[in-house]
Write a structure and sequence with these properties.
about 500 residues; alpha+beta; 16-stranded mixed beta sheet
């Protein structure tokens, strides 16, 4: 669930970035009043300065490397149709080894007794300790380890082939949740599952016969217990989760990207009169600068239905993804939600607004991403997708010196053999929206073009790979006590 919600934000970032990137000519000489001229000049000054900073400093080398590595791990996981089942069996056997012998009686008058249980089994989901080692042909072996590790060969453009490892470990503290156990026909038994409060994430590669850390991460969870219970539930308790991933390559001597990037993401739920609010905060820093900072508040009809929808979507999703699947899954999960979003670029330009129809927005994004080539669809049809996107969302652009935010929409343009999206702004003295690329310099337009190609291709590719990975990883793990029990039946 962590990375799924993360990519909802990235889909919003995709919208925000494309609203600032394009290319054309600088030929707007229409007369405007003094207030509008001031608004225009201030906005364009900030746009040109921020685009220059982003173009000169924003570097996706490390993230491209990580995406290529994860993509090849996905390929290995998908090669053997029995891999998921086999890993589940190993995890379940290790996590609940000798479970019947470890079953404990429920104390009289306890919360578990009030739930109707006579016995319980403690299950530490992160105690399975499995290292999966793939060879070049996708054949694998499983060995004991601390936490969960994947070791596999991968070929990365510019760096050749080497051995990579992705490791996830529990840091030792947990919450407890309860669900009924169905183990070898036993009844009246509970599974007390331990949910890690903090897990460490590490990606390494073998360079010059030395294991080199590419990035480190921490995944944290906070769940609010109700006063009358010692147990927690994502369906009913407010929660806060966070991911902090930082490059470990600054000043490295291995010829790898000299990178100091950091991504910090947190999200959590709160109750309100409008329903459940999902609050998302994110920041991306690089070269000592905060490139992007975002806040999103998503209104959901009900927390339990939202979490159940995610779990159901994971369990029923196809393992053979196409490019369109990322937007399709996001549209399904957030089909009844709306969002208020504020994105700040280089701590300067601010893109703010709302998504009123998330299902329509993700459908439009899917259509736009699948139909970029001229000739694949008519210009009228591509325009209709842009119209749907604009109708589903409402955004404005502002800089610190603007008197008020300027309304903004997307427009379609054709460049060479592709359709592209162009931001257009409405100034105080005009009814029509003026394309930004007609106001900035030729140099800025060239930077726009570079940033558009680099950012949109990166985000689209990464969105698809990351969502595939989180879905498959979650499907690899036993999801509930019934599944733990089924995997522990005598015939297995």
């Amino acid at each position: 669930m962590k990375r799924i919600i993360n990519w909802v934000l990235f889909a919003s970032l995709f919208l925000g970035l494309t609203m600032q990137m394009s290319c054309s000519s600088n030929d707007d000489d229409a007369p405007i009043n003094e207030e509008a001229r001031k608004e225009r000049d201030e906005l364009i000054t900030h746009v040109e300065n921020d685009v220059r900073i982003l173009d000169e400093n924003l570097d996706f080398q490390l993230f491209d490397m990580m995406t290529q590595i994860q993509s090849q791990l996905l390929t290995y996981i998908g090669k053997d149709p029995h891999f998921s089942t086999n890993l589940k069996k190993v995890c379940a056997l290790l996590a609940v080894r000798n479970a019947i012998q470890n079953a404990r009686p429920v104390e009289s008058g306890s919360e578990l007794a009030a739930m109707g249980y006579q016995a319980y089994i403690p299950v530490d989901i992160m105690s399975f300790g499995v290292r999966v080692i793939f060879d070049e042909n996708g054949k694998y072996t499983m060995r004991p380890a601390e936490g969960l590790e994947f070791v596999f060969p991968a070929t990365v453009e510019g760096y050749g082939q080497t051995l990579y490892k992705i490791a996830l470990r529990n840091e030792g503290e947990w919450y407890e949740s309860v669900s009924p156990a169905k183990m070898n026909g036993a009844t009246g038994m509970a599974c007390v599952n331990r949910i890690p409060r903090k897990m460490s994430l590490r990606m390494t590669g073998l360079f010059n016969d030395e294991e080199v850390t590419l990035c480190n991460g921490v995944i944290s969870t906070m769940l609010e217990k109700t006063p009358e219970s010692q147990y927690v539930s994502f369906q009913t308790n407010e929660f806060q989760m966070g991911v902090d991933i930082r490059s470990a390559l600054k000043g490295n001597t291995y010829g790898l990207p000299d990178d100091d990037s950091a991504i910090v993401l947190s999200w959590g739920t709160t109750d309100s009169s409008a329903g459940t609010l999902l609050n998302i905060l994110t920041s991306f820093t690089q070269k000592g600068m905060e490139m992007l900072n975002g806040v999103a508040v998503v209104t959901l009809p009900e927390q339990k239905a939202f979490i159940d929808n995610i779990i159901d979507n994971i369990n029923t999703s196809s393992s053979n993804w196409q490019d369109a699947d990322a937007y399709a899954h996001l549209g399904t999960i957030f089909k009844e939600g709306r969002a208020d979003i504020v994105l700040k670029f280089v701590d300067d330009l601010t893109l703010s607004g709302s998504i009123e129809n998330s299902e329509q927005l993700f459908k439009a994004l899917n259509n736009l991403s699948q139909n970029k080539e001229v000739g694949k669809v008519s210009s009228e049809e591509y325009d209709s997708y842009v119209k749907e996107l604009n109708e589903a969302s409402n955004f404005s652009l502002a800089c610190p010196t603007n008197a008020k935010p300027l309304p903004q929409k997307l427009q379609a343009q054709q460049k060479d053999a592709q359709y592209i999206l162009t931001p257009a702004v409405q100034f105080p003295d005009k009814q029509e929206y003026v394309p930004l690329n007609t106001l900035v310099t030729d140099e800025t337009n060239q930077r726009f073009e570079k940033m558009y190609e680099k950012s949109t291709s990166f985000l689209t590719r990464t969105l698809d790979v990351e969502m595939q990975l989180v879905y498959r990883m979650m499907r690899l793990m036993p999801m509930n006590s019934e599944e733990w029990g089924l995997l522990m039946s005598p015939e297995q």
